[in-house]
Design brief:
Blueprint lengths: L4 H4 L5 H4 L7 H4 L6 H6 L3 E6 L8 E5 L2 E7 L5 E5 L13 E2 L4 E2 L6 E2 L5 E3 L9 H4 L4 E2 L1 E4 L2 E5 L21 E9 L3 H5 L6 H9 L14 E6 L6 E9 L2 E10 L3 E2 L12 E4 L3 E9 L2 E10 L29 H6 L3 H6 L17 H18 L20 E6 L7 H18 L5 H16 L2
Length: 447
């Protein structure tokens, strides 16, 4: 039913708000043949950790498809449709062979590209091997994660390597977290810097550092060519201006800043603490697959026992690390995102100015989804220097005297100047860009 605005403004108006609503299908439904699913399938996605590929096949569900992943004895990785092309037995119970995987039911042998290598029991001149190919997807391994491409086989894009995935003296520890909710409500989190102030500090106590309680002056910026969105969140903390930058490369790659940063001393481009993808499982579940970074900028020593499948070394990220009571008393990102329900209903939201980034991201995804539906190629980030995609995420803490007349405008000017520097230096190799950003910030600091 249509509810008049004046009824929605009434106290005790639950009756009027209880009308059933439907989800935004264009952005949330991800199965084969859906508009969003077709868009997502034009990109490489991580599907599991390398460590999960043992001597047994691994059952997976990705974008509404039941799959099996395995490493055959020769070392090749396969990501195949889970049910055998013969009689639909599950290859989760298949036998890993020297080359490919053999169905347990009748022994058919499938190569990692879906080619049927053997059909035991069939006549020697059976045409099946020459006329049928099992469903399979291109797969590759990179730094402890397994990736697959689910789109048209004649349009496989280059595998994207972001600059932060190839930093010097950087240890990357893979992890994955299962989340029983739609991919979009998790994917939007980096575009909402204000949640860090309230969810992680003011509402339920300090989860990371006390300095996170400072409210920043926030701007959202289009990446050149609208390849994505990045945020500058500039805060005043004691004698410092502290800008946190976060980014989202569509459809689902993001990098959070260091959760241990306390803005107690100057830093000029400390890079992210993690690099992550939000991969849809189906319409009502997703999987966060990522690396934790450990290096001189971030600091710390990895606790390998605390990072892996459904575990990571900072609070509020999984539904298994704490008791239900603890999660209710101190909710984290997991609770805030999963608590929206299996698929949040956008028509029941009331977005404000602080949600500008969320609105920008939804609009960008919607345009890209429609472009793919019209037969166009989606926009992808282009590699630059060193054949790497330059990124924006990081922390910048610079000693700057407070402008007592207009401190808010000072924060805004600093954040916008930093954004311009980050864009202007995109073409430089990683180490050179780090140095140039620092030089320009120091020049800005003393003007």
């Amino acid at each position: 039913m249509t509810v008049p605005d004046h009824e929605l403004r009434r106290a005790y108006n639950g009756y009027y708000r209880a009308a059933p609503e439907t989800e935004d299908v264009e952005l949330t439904h991800v199965g084969p043949g859906t508009a969003c699913g077709e868009y997502l399938r034009r990109f490489w996605h991580p599907v599991c950790l390398s460590s999960q590929l043992t001597d047994l096949p691994l059952a997976l569900r990705v974008m509404g498809e039941d799959l099996v992943a395995f490493r055959d004895r020769s070392g090749d990785i396969g990501v195949l449709h889970r049910h055998c092309s013969h009689r639909r037995a599950s290859l989760e119970y298949g036998v890993i062979a020297e080359h490919g995987i053999r169905c347990c039911y009748h022994g058919w042998l499938f190569a990692v590209d879906g080619t049927i290598l053997e059909t035991p029991g069939e006549p020697a001149d059976s045409p099946i091997r020459d006329t049928l190919c099992h469903g399979a997807y291109p797969a590759r391994e990179y730094r402890g994660l397994v990736f697959a491409y689910f789109g048209p086989p004649d349009g496989v894009p280059d595998f994207p390597v972001y600059d932060t995935l190839d930093m010097p003296d950087n240890e990357m520890v893979p992890y994955a977290i299962d989340m029983p909710c739609n991919w979009l409500q998790v994917n939007e989190n980096p575009m909402d810097p204000f949640h860090a102030v309230f969810l992680h500090t003011r509402a339920t106590g300090v989860q990371f550092k006390q300095s996170w309680e400072a409210t920043g002056v926030v701007d959202w910026h289009w990446m050149p060519g609208r390849a994505g969105v990045f945020v500058t969140d500039t805060r005043r903390w004691e004698q410092f201006l502290w800008t946190r930058t976060a980014e989202l490369y569509p459809p689902n790659f993001a990098q959070p800043t260091d959760f241990n940063q306390d803005a107690s001393g100057e830093v000029f481009f400390n890079r992210p603490c993690a690099s992550k993808w939000i991969v849809p499982v189906d319409n009502t579940a997703c999987r966060l697959i990522a690396w934790r970074h450990f290096n001189a900028m971030i600091g710390g020593t990895p606790d390998y026992d605390s990072i892996g499948v459904n575990k990571v070394d900072f609070v509020g990220q999984t539904g298994t690390e704490r008791t239900t009571e603890d999660r209710r008393r101190v909710p984290g990102d997991y609770e805030a995102q999963v608590g929206q329900g299996p698929i949040t209903v956008h028509s029941q939201e009331r977005l404000g100015q602080t949600d500008t980034g969320v609105a920008m991201l939804r609009g960008l995804l919607r345009r890209e989804i429609r472009a793919v539906a019209a037969g166009e190629e989606p926009r992808r980030a282009s590699p630059g220097a060193d054949n790497r995609i330059a990124t924006y995420s990081g922390d910048f803490v610079v000693s700057v005297p407070r402008d007592v007349k207009d401190p808010e405008q000072q924060q805004r000017d600093f954040g916008r100047a930093l954004a311009a520097i980050l864009i202007d230096t995109l073409g430089l190799p990683f180490t050179q860009r780090q140095a140039e950003v620092k030089n320009r910030l120091q020049a800005l600091q003393h003007n």
